[in-house]
Write a structure and sequence with these properties.
The chain is α+β, with helices and mostly antiparallel strands. Helices cover 24% and strands 11% of the residues. It has a single domain, classed as Alpha-Beta Plaits. The protein binds FE3-S4 cluster (2 copies). One FE3-S4 cluster (F3S) binds next to loops.
Length: 106
C-alpha cells in the first residue's frame, strides 16, 4: 500500500491532492477521500499539498493513523455505495461516492 489518507481529511476534503495526482487514483467518499492502493504510482506528489497534513507514505504513518492503511484499501473492496468499487481506473469518471468506509461514516 503506497500512500494513505488519514483522519484529518474527514469533513475537510480540501481536494488539492486530487488535482495533483497524475494517476487520478484519489477517490471521493462522503466525508473523506481514499487512495486506491493498486492505482497509486507512489510519486509522492499528493503528500505535500494537503493543508491538513493528512497524507502519509504507508511506512511513515503515525501510530494512531495506522488503521487508515486498511481503511483506504477496504474502501475499494467492501460493499460501499453501489460497490465494491474495485479498481475503476480513474476517480474523475467515478465522481463522488456518496458513502464512506463504515469506520469513517460512523
Ligand atoms: Fe483531504 Fe488533504 Fe486531499 S484534506 S481531500 S487529503 S488535500
Ligand atoms: Fe497519486 Fe502519487 Fe499520491 S499517484 S495518490 S499523487 S503518491
Amino acid at each position: 500500500m503506497p500512500y494513505v489518507i488519514t483522519q484529518a481529511c474527514v469533513d475537510v476534503k480540501d481536494k488539492s491532492c486530487m488535482e495533483e495526482c497524475p494517476a487520478d487514483c484519489i477517490y471521493e467518499g462522503d466525508r473523506m477521500l481514499y487512495i486506491q492502493p493498486d492505482e497509486c504510482v507512489e510519486c509522492g506528489r499528493c503528500e505535500p499539498v494537503c493543508p491538513q497534513i493528512s497524507i502519509f507514505h504507508h511506512e511513515d504513518l503515525p501510530e494512531e493513523a495506522k488503521k487508515f492503511e486498511r481503511i483506504n484499501a477496504e474502501f475499494f473492496t467492501l460493499q460501499i455505495g453501489t460497490g465494491p468499487l474495485g479498481s475503476p481506473g480513474g476517480a474523475r469518471k467515478v465522481g463522488r461516492v456518496g458513502d464512506d468506509h463504515p469506520e469513517v461514516g460512523a
